[in-house]
TrEMBL record:
The keyword RNA-binding applies. This is Transcription attenuation protein MtrB. InterPro entries: MtrB, Trp_RNA-bd_attenuator-like_dom, Trp_RNA-bd_attenuator_dom. Belongs to the MtrB family. Oligomer of 11 identical subunits arranged in doughnut-like structure. It comes from Paenibacillus arenilitoris. Transmembrane segments: none annotated. Residues 5-72 form the Tryptophan RNA-binding attenuator protein domain.
Amino acid sequence: MEPTNGEYIVVKAKDQGVQVIGLTRGQDTKFHHTEKLDKNEILICQFTDHTSAIKIRGKAVVMTKYGTMETDQ
């Protein structure tokens, strides 16, 4: 199996119940994984052969190699 060298993002929950949802690649985009974070929890996410997008619901800070941003909720 070849290692995946996709980019990473870091999500830090600012409130209870922040959802981080992985979306698939391919013709049909589907949810394939969901995590729920408690306040101040951190999740490190990686884009892979199966994950083409990451959706975040709730108040969070998102850190990438391109910079840091916050959700507006």
